[in-house]
TrEMBL record:
Family annotation (InterPro entries): Acetolactate_a_deCO2ase
EC number(s) given by UniProt: 4.1.1.5
GO function terms (MF aspect): acetolactate decarboxylase activity
Protein name: Alpha-acetolactate decarboxylase
Reactions accelerated catalytically: (2S)-2-acetolactate + H(+) = (R)-acetoin + CO2
Keyword Cell cycle: no
Swiss-Prot/TrEMBL keywords: Acetoin biosynthesis, Decarboxylase, Lyase
Uppermost EC category: lyase
Family: Belongs to the alpha-acetolactate decarboxylase family.
Organism of this sequence: Bifidobacterium colobi
Cited PANTHER family: ALPHA-ACETOLACTATE DECARBOXYLASE (PTHR35524)
């Protein structure tokens, strides 16, 4: 009796693991609202897994197993402390489901197959790919100082990194097209090598061999920086939010 009852308890919902937590929106990066308005410590209260960017677009963050790493303009990953601040970040409690293995597949096809396999184009979900990438191209934005530039101006101030035959974890989030602006419609993926020496925001990749996991969310919690004067007083009606995000964050961007 106890055993059959235990089977019926859904461990994911019980621990709130189907909630995606987001601090800020990508839309506030467009006009350059890059103040750090939350901390890694706060983000970790809402999950042990995530991605984000630091104040002034200081590096590309990835959180795996409750530990946060930042890849800055040097391309080298470093652990960041709990008081590190960010204008935008996502986290969730990991409860990934194994999906499949894949060999020799490019990033675009891989992402398309993941959406197809899930039948989830209108759903937020996380994807985790662990394996050896025969090719991995990442970027990290160079840290900006206040007064901050717009997202489009910053898009040209980035370092690009290439690695071959690198083993690690690619972690990302898929956002439905009707949420474009609040997030990037489609995938937003970051990478960290197993030896923690390399990573960044994924621009392009070829997976040589790896395992694919996904986790579907039924709830999006968006936390806004309501006490930040820059955010409170900004007039977003003059910003071409959706176009600017497409231009700056598009996964086909190569420069
Ligand atoms: Zn990114």
């Amino acid at each position: 009796m106890t055993q059959s009852l235990a089977k019926n308890i859904h461990p994911i919902t019980e621990h709130g693991a189907n909630v995606l937590y987001q601090h800020g929106t990508l839309a506030l990066l467009v006009p350059g609202l890059l103040e750090g308005t939350t901390t890694i410590g706060e983000l970790l209260k809402h999950g042990d897994t995530g991605i984000g960017t630091g104040e002034g677009l200081d590096g590309e963050l990835i959180i795996l197993n409750g530990v946060a790493y930042k890849v800055g303009q040097s391309g080298v990953a470093e652990q960041v402390p709990d008081d590190f601040t960010m204008p935008f970040a996502n986290s969730h409690r990991a409860a990934f489901q194994y999906q499949c293995e894949r060999n020799d597949i490019g990033l675009e096809e891989l992402n398309d197959r993941i959406v197809e396999a899930n039948g989830r184009a209108n759903t937020f979900f996380s994807v985790k790919v662990h394996g050896t990438f025969s090719f991995m191209k990442t970027r990290a934005v160079i840290k900006q100082q206040a007064p901050y530039p717009t997202l489009l101006e910053v898009a040209d101030r980035q370092a690009i990194f290439l690695r071959h035959d690198v083993t690690g974890t690619m972690l990302g989030y898929f956002s439905p097209v009707m949420f474009h602006g609040a997030a990037v419609a489609g995938f937003h993926e970051h990478f960290l090598s197993d030896d923690h020496t390399f990573g960044g925001h994924v621009l392009d990749a070829v997976l040589g061999h790896g395992e694919i996991y996904s986790q579907v969310f039924d709830t999006l919690v968006t936390h806004l920086p309501v006490d930040d004067p820059g955010y409170r007083n900004h007039d977003f009606s003059q910003d071409n939010i959706a176009e600017a995000i497409t231009s700056a964050e598009g996964d086909t961007r190569t420069d």
